[in-house]
Amino acid sequence: MTAPREVSFTVNGEAHTVRVEPRKTLADTIREDCGLTGTHLGCEHGVCGACTILLDGAPVRSCLMFAGQAEGAEIRTVEGLADGDKLHPLQRAFIDRHALQCGFCTPGFLMLALGVLEREPDIDEAGLREALASNLCRCTGYLNILDAVKDARAAMKAGGG
Fold it and tell me: What is the DSSP secondary-structure string of 55-99?
């Protein structure tokens, strides 16, 4: 068995150094060692997307990564979206469009959408449908999620995020 090691990364602008077992996932580390429980664990096989975070700007399934692989990385989680009491346009749009019911998948969808919109602000509806299809939701039927992301895209382009 390999001994625990220190790993340092930044989460939502805050530096973290944690001591983890080599096989501890990034999702578990974010939740247990950083205290950020908004990143949800669903299937733990990379299929559902509930654990999606942004790692150096790219959406990744944090259940498929070891914490050690995030050494020196900039991580963003759902807790970093709002600015105090001011919701991010994605959060506001999910509420306004009723794009969540149980809310379990919502953090993963928010972070996936954020990564997509930041990388490709002019993405068309077909591109959004393809990108969002990688995450699973058992409650909303997806159309409200798509509409919310389209609304947020417009708000972000107008300078609201």
Answer: ETTEEEEGGGSBGGGGTT-EEE-GGGTSBTTB--HHHHHHHHTT-
